[in-house]
Amino acid sequence: MEAMEVDSAVDVLAEGLEIAPPPEEFIESRSISDSGSSTEVDEDDEEEQRAAQTPVRLPSTWAFSQRAVGGAAVAPPASQGAPIQRRLRQGLRVHYPSQTAGPSRGFPDFHLRAPAASMAEPESGSTTEVSESEEDEERRGEESTSNAAQDVEPGGSASTPQQAEPQEASASISATVVDSERTEGTVQDCRTSQVQSSSPEENEGDTCTICFESWTTAGEHRLSALRCGHLFGYTCIHRWLKAQGSAAKCPQCNKKAKRSDIVLLYAPKLRALDNSEQESLKKSLEQEQSLRRKAELESAQYKLKLQVVTTKYGHAQQELQELRALIAQTGRSSAPSSTSSSSSASLPFSLSQRVDGSRAAQYSFSKAVLVSQAGGCRVLAYCDPLSCLLASQPSPHSTLVPGCGVKKLSVVNMKTSQYVPIHSKQIRGLSFNTRNDSLLLSAALDNTIKLTSLLTNTVVQTYNAGKPVWSCCWCLDNSNYIYAGLSNGSVLLYDTRDTSTHVQELLPACSRCPVASLCYVPRAASTSFPCGGLIAGSLEGGCFWEQVNEATYRPHVLPLENAGCIDIQVEAESRHCLVTYRPGRSNPFLRCVLMSLTRSPQQDSSQLPSCSCSPVQTFSGGSSCKLLTKNAVFKSPAGSGTLVCAGDEASNSTMIWDAGSGSLLQKLPADLPVLDINPFYVNGEHFLATLTEKMLKLYKWE
């Protein structure tokens, strides 16, 4: 049972009873246990008898003012005029009647105050001073007692002790009841606080971990946080960090903190949701998505491999059919010698090369020359009068001589000679004329085309086109004219005798794509295609500008594919052009289509003849083509037939086909994608030059 704080008088006074002076023994403080929910003192006769039989004593340090037995009040001595401050032992409280009540003849009421069970018990030897209000009550009670004792006279109008006793008793009893009610309310509050504190988990997230008080949304104890993320009341954490000084740490995680790390949070109610399951589901979803992407990538790779195998299988089937046809033809012949000779004669060039490799000529590796260590090479050209190859590259000394130029490579000793600076930006086209005057025509992205004399290594003429120039070429019918293909799809015609500006502009019909390639077809005594003109190839198709006379050009749109055209080259003698298409949706491989230029005859004077082209042979390459490469079509060094050469980015090699049969003759390896190919003839020997971004390789026909 809990010890409760009860205020009870030592002697129960009844109204109208005469109170006899108590004995001299002091009354002792007693602790009354609470047997029930009521805090009032039971007034049973047995308890009164027990209290009377048991003498109670007070410590000798207490002093009381006693009244005379006959009813006369004893006045305090003169030396005790000032009020005396008394010190009370813990657990006791002196109760005095109010100031308006009459003087009491008996002892003052003593009440026992027992602390609640939830409060900590003080040390046994500690003492507690009386509060200021209680000291004031003591002083007023003593003053009223002394004044009443001095003013009372035998025949006066003052109330007699017999009349004052009922008032004092009633006041004492009422004060006892009030204190009992207060004690009962205090006990009930203590029980309520215990009930509230019994469930700390409910308010665990709403209290400050320093003072264990609820934080607020405004004021000094508002919600705040440190950089580590723990929450506190602002005043508590501010005092905490200030008290610790420079070695301040977070009260919860002991991480270093300072007062500037305090951040105020503006949240009416803060709760943390448990999203661990959601995060685990997200991680599993990401893993599944990554595995799915990996599987899709592998599936796409296997599809490409399947297409390559299918293509090879088709070629093998075609060759097998050719071999079966040849075997059938040889079986009809009676003589074995004639059979072997006829079979070898009827074999295509590719098959004869495979059957008898000793008699089949091909290109063999001759020399590899490093042109640029940093890379940046783009186009290639051969100068017949000087017997040297020219490869475009950035300046090897960009700080001293910025820009781009060409590097010379002598084919006599296979060594590089010198670098010639020409343009300020990348060079996209190089070309020589048929006069063998060693004038190099170059086009660059710095909006200019220039004529450079390789005899003196100086620029002799510059034309400003106003837009980046992507390609250039000479007029093979008149060496005084040059062409420049611009980035907006138009072609400018320049006269080398006029150094001011261009003499004519050939505007495209619909396409505004850059002119990636320019080739001139000279006039010839041919029945199928006798006219001459310029073929301009853009990324969206091609157009043949027929040269009617020196000042008139008639456009003819070639029936090419709408997209993917990266290069057009012409073989002047056979009147064939080679169109290169990059891989697309319909055709996933690089394709080089050999076209035959044709011209429809003129029916009447009102209808003009039209020029067109028709496909002759298609050559397939790899599945990758990201760069604008330049290919080649030329007469075979063997003396008959035509060869087609193209760079393959997928395998970093140069592929050589026979234009007549469409079979692959050779595959020349390279370290990087081949950007330009140039065949040339010197000292009775045929060579093939291939250019990558850094390296130039030479192959000799043997």
UniProtKB/TrEMBL annotation:
Name the principal localization, coarsely classed. Answer: cytoplasm
Where do Polar residues bias regions lie? 157-177, 185-200
Q: Which residues form a coiled coil?
A: 278-305
| Domain RING-type residue range list | 208-254
What GO terms in the biological process aspect are recorded for it?
A: interstrand cross-link repair; protein ubiquitination
Cellular compartments per GO CC: cytoplasm; PML body
Q: Which pathway is this protein assigned to?
A: Protein modification; protein ubiquitination
Instruction: List the keywords (alphabetical).
Output: Coiled coil, Cytoplasm, DNA damage, DNA repair, Metal-binding, Nucleus, Repeat, Transferase, Ubl conjugation pathway, WD repeat, Zinc, Zinc-finger
Listed GO molecular functions? ubiquitin protein ligase activity; zinc ion binding
Q: What is its EC number?
A: 2.3.2.27
Q: Which SUPFAM superfamilies match?
A: RING/U-box, WD40 repeat-like
Q: Enumerate the subcellular locations listed in this protein's record, separating them with semicolons.
A: Cytoplasm; Nucleus, PML body
What segment(s) does the record annotate as region Disordered? 14-206
Q: Does the keyword Cell wall biogenesis/degradation apply?
A: no
Superkingdom of the source species: Eukaryota
Would I find DNA-binding among this entry's keywords? no
The record's section on Pfam families has: WD40_RFWD3 (PF23419), zf-RING_2 (PF13639)
Q: Which PANTHER family match?
A: E3 UBIQUITIN-PROTEIN LIGASE RFWD3 (PTHR16047:SF7), RFWD3 PROTEIN (PTHR16047)
Q: What is this protein called?
A: RING-type E3 ubiquitin transferase
